[in-house]
Amino acid sequence: LSQTDDAAYAPETQNDQSSAGTCFGFSVSPDLGFKYLRNGEGEPLTIIESADEPEGTEHAPVLEWSPTPAIPWHARLYDDGARFRLWIESGGWFVVEPSLSRITIPTHDDHVRREERLWGLPAILTFLERGDLPLHAAAVEVDGGAVILGAPGRFGKTTLAAAFVSAGYRLLSEDVTCVRLTERPVAIPGPAMLRVRQDVADSVATNNVSVTLEAQEPEARVHFSIDPSLRGDCNPVPIRGIVLLRVTDDRVWLDPVDPVAALRDLWPLSFRLPFDSDRGRAFGGLAELVRDVPIWNLHRPMRIDALSAAVAGIVEGV
Amino acid sequence: LLEPGSTVRQNPRVVHRRLAEGEGGVLLHLETSAYHGVNEIGLAIWEIVGDGKTIAEVVQELGARVSDPPAKLEDDVIQFLDGLRDRGLVTD
Lengths: 318, 92
What we know:
The complex is a heterodimer. By secondary structure, chain A is of the alpha+beta class. Helix content of chain A is 22%, strand content 32%. Chain A is built from 7 helices and 20 strands. Chain A has helices at residues 111-118, 121-129, 157-166, 198-203, 259-266, 276-292, 307-317, and strands at 21-23, 26-29, 43-50, 63-65, 75-79, 84-88, 92-97, 102-106, 133-135, 138-142, 145-150, 170-173, 177-180, 186-188, 193-197, 209-213, 221-226, 237-247, 253-256, 295-300. Chain A is globular, with a radius of gyration of 19 Å. The two termini of chain A are 38 Å apart. In chain B, the strands form 2 sheets. In chain B, strands 5-1-6 form a 3-stranded antiparallel sheet. In chain B, strands 2-3-4 form a 3-stranded antiparallel sheet. In chain B, strand 3 (25-29) and strand 4 (35-38) form a beta hairpin. Classes of the chains: A alpha+beta, B alpha+beta.
């Protein structure tokens, strides 16, 4: 990404206010009523509100998402060279200028959902600029180390993360984990939020959280913020291991995964733009990660009454 | 089948990464997103092939790298590179 052309998109306002908190290692300013930030300091990230649709050249989106049960809305990502424009159905326009660490967000009555969208793709595009690796996975802190919870089968990572939170462990990320490939890979904590099904909210996510949004169709998930006492800051947490969630009918057990097999499961969980250079970046990052971090399969019944055993198995075995 | 005089080269749309010492590496075909694990010897062959080598050159360089190379090294190299060619990872 090259330096942005400021003349091409003039922000409505500029803010130099003090940080409202941190997320993904960024100090976020100004305070726009954010619910999911952590403590501490980080690199500056400027957030600007704008009611206008951003100007941009007409061309095909580089990525487009159709509604799914998990993400029930359309979205399109446009790459203008120096910046990205992201349109989300019912959510408005986000403009991401990674080289300037600046994101423009729409004025919107629903501040909670707007913030949640901000910490998705706009944040990913911004921390990609730093060289970090996004993974579609949750992460929790166990004894000072990050345990990444990936669900190649797409189900269960948030519920298991909720069980960790309820048991008093710190949630590092719920949906997107920011990995930094230093000599020993680390996770950079993301938003202190948790979104779970109603039945999980009723039976699992009962401690250390506060409701920010009640469940609504079509998404039907209850949204929580993590209690401030359990948020901590955004300092990097050394990665202790990656756990891939598998389904079985009986007991809970862990078994190690060799790097090549792990790469097969992690590749679909990585984010990449549809260009050779970006696919190569993602692949190279994952290869480094599986080389340097132990990977485990966690076989567990997908039942709420098995969650405690799954938490205990990870704490003891990873 | 490839022959000793055949020249092969890495497909430029394939990227590779070495894993930990002794664990070989992985190749990703950017066009198909298919990836392939290779052992240490396979990775050495891949690296020797580079921008273009004959099978004979690959066998000679590989033989110099490994201790006690097998008598049928050429057959093994041809079989391996045929497999890579079938998967579009190397080209003639």
